Amino acid sequence: MIARRPFLLLTAGLLIGGLGGCAAPSAETGRNQTPTIVMELDPNVSKAVATVHIGDEVRFVLPAGRGPEFVWQIVSNDPRALRQSSAIIFKPGVAGAAGSSSVSFIAQRPSRSFVRFAYVPAAGGKETQLVDAYEILVTVRG
Question: Is the pTM here over 0.85, yes or no?
Answer without folding.
Answer: no
